[in-house]
Amino acid sequence: MALTIRLARGGAKKRPFYRIVVADKRMPRDGRFIEKLGTYNPMLAKDDENRVVMNAERVDYWLGEGAQPSDRVLRFLVAAGKAERSIPQQTKKAEQSEKTKMRIEEKAEKVREAEEAAKAAAEEAAAEAAAAEEAPAEAAEA
């Protein structure tokens, strides 16, 4: 049996209230569940201690039994320090194409060349300024 720790909605229209429950994955969202582990009240302020209330011992037990938390419940567990949230691996579709990579490389090369040219021009200007300062000083000495 595939177990999941998820939210079951309760409360009135536009006044949501959720129970954190362990249920069979095949059961409907608000349907039969195995055990109630806590509550989540999104109407309370984010810093309110009663916004998310969980029985940590039972959550640990069910995680040990192989229950998979839903995304929202996983966020609660991460906030409570009971689990770690891994960042999903990028798909190939999200990867840049070879042509885009080449364009980025070309832009970076142009920027490097422009920086080198500016650096060379600044050094040349500094050398000319130094030469101009020395020339009047030599003429005054003679």
Automatic annotation (TrEMBL):
<keyword id="KW-0689">Ribosomal protein</keyword>
<dbReference type="GO" id="GO:0006412">
    <property type="term" value="P:translation"/>
</dbReference>
<protein>
    <recommendedName>
        <fullName>Small ribosomal subunit protein bS16</fullName>
    </recommendedName>
</protein>
<dbReference type="InterPro" id="IPR020592">
    <property type="entry name" value="Ribosomal_bS16_CS"/>
</dbReference>
<dbReference type="GO" id="GO:0005737">
    <property type="term" value="C:cytoplasm"/>
</dbReference>
<feature type="region of interest" description="Disordered">
    <location>
        <begin position="84"/>
        <end position="142"/>
    </location>
</feature>
<dbReference type="GO" id="GO:0015935">
    <property type="term" value="C:small ribosomal subunit"/>
</dbReference>
<dbReference type="InterPro" id="IPR000307">
    <property type="entry name" value="Ribosomal_bS16"/>
</dbReference>
<comment type="similarity">
    <text>Belongs to the bacterial ribosomal protein bS16 family.</text>
</comment>
<dbReference type="InterPro" id="IPR023803">
    <property type="entry name" value="Ribosomal_bS16_dom_sf"/>
</dbReference>
<dbReference type="GO" id="GO:0003735">
    <property type="term" value="F:structural constituent of ribosome"/>
</dbReference>
<feature type="compositionally biased region" description="Basic and acidic residues">
    <location>
        <begin position="92"/>
        <end position="122"/>
    </location>
</feature>
<dbReference type="Pfam" id="PF00886">
    <property type="entry name" value="Ribosomal_S16"/>
</dbReference>
<keyword id="KW-0687">Ribonucleoprotein</keyword>
<feature type="compositionally biased region" description="Low complexity">
    <location>
        <begin position="123"/>
        <end position="142"/>
    </location>
</feature>
